[in-house]
Amino acid sequence: METLHKPVLLNEVLKNLLTQAEGIYLDLTFGRGGHSKAILEKLNKSGKLFAFDKDHEAVEMAVKELGYDKRFQIFHNTFSDLEKIISSLDLKGKITGILLDLGVSSPQLDNASRGFSFNKDGVLDMRMDQRQTLKANTWINTVSESILLDVLKKFGEERFAKRIAHHIVNARRKNPIHTTKELAKIVAEAHPAWEEGQHPATKTFQAIRIFINKELDELNTCLGQASNVLAPGGRLVVISFHSLEDRIVKRFISKNSVGEVLPKEIPLSHAPGFTPTLKKVGKLIRPNHMEVKMNPRSRSAVMRVAEKIR
Ligand SMILES: C[S@@+](CC[C@H](N)C(=O)[O-])C[C@H]1O[C@@H](n2cnc3c(N)ncnc32)[C@H](O)[C@@H]1O
Predict the structure, then answer these.
(1) Which of 70, 90, 112, 263 has the most CB atoms in a 10 Å sphere around its CB?
(2) Would you say 27 and 51 are in contact if contact means Cβ atoms under 8 Å apart?
(3) What is the pTM of this model?
(4) Which helix (H) or strand (E) holds 13?
């Protein structure tokens, strides 16, 4: 049986996202629909919810569980196709709220055959979108040591990236790496010290996953498009799970609400000619102690909210 995905920060999402029961909403990361189902419960019969996911298992689940609801439609697309799809529906500038709950879902992590987890032995795959040709095992066996080092540093913020990259390249010369457990073992052998409670391969797996799925590029593209499709007063709610994602979201909101930060010597609050398009709403939101206890996956979640002003 598939593992359940518990929606993270559910009450906070509903409170910050939903401003009109008859609004048009986007859930850009359907997953197993935890947030989508709760949003639909709050909408009236004129409300609409369009969802996206690039994983066909998520899309199948959406059709199976919510296909009956005329207010709901799922797109098997990446969220960086957002503006194209919303424009084709003639809804650009008319969206009431957008949710992004980034990263992988629990079923993706827990299904060994998806190859995302160092805890489950399976082919090292890591593709969120099964239509993509490049799998993590092909990449790890062919990438140059210097690119591997860059990826581990940039997307894993791994202190011991150099050692690990070197060890992987040596190990694959003897035997190509095919499975999650093989890679986890190689990384564990190379790693001199890791954070308490973490697996030594945590950062390496994070880095490879982000690279294979182009997660940060897609997030950057999507945020600009999200702002373009929102109606004035529309809300953007983003849940991130690591500092690389959150930094992008934080900078995006800040750049569009207060502009580029000016050097201290310039006595202006905004760059000349800057017109804000977003307003920051509230402070950073994190799950409370109770939620983390009930759903340990939520422990690193942080949520930011912005409102479109023009
Ligand atoms: C954390 S889960 C979302 C869970 C969901 N909120 C729920 O309650 O069930 C993230 C989902 O976003 C999808 N995803 C990640 N990046 C995506 C992208 N660029 N485009 C579309 N879907 C993406 C993943 O496939 C995954 O199913």
Answers:
(1) 112
(2) yes
(3) 0.95
(4) helix 10-17
Do 191 and 229 sit in the same domain of this protein? no
What phi and psi values does residue 97 have, to the nearest 5 degrees?
Answer: -165, 145
Distance CA 108, CA 6 (A): 13
Query: Domain limits at 170?
Result: 133-212
Last residue of a domain, one of 212, 235, 252: 212
Q: Do 4 and 294 touch, CB atoms closer than 8 A?
A: no
**Residue to mutate (ligand 1; options 128, 210, 295; most atoms within 8 A of CB):** 128
Does residue 227 sit in the same domain as residue 244?
yes
What does the DSSP assignment read for 200-269? TTHHHHHHHHHHHTTHHHHHHHHHHHHHHHEEEEEEEEEEESSHHHHHHHHHHHHHHHT-SPPPTTS--S
- Tell me: do 238 and 96 sit in the same domain: yes
Find out whether the beta carbon of 72 lies less than 6 Å from any atom of ligand 1: no
**Overall domain count for the chain:** 2
Ligand 1 center–CA 93 separation, angstroms: 23
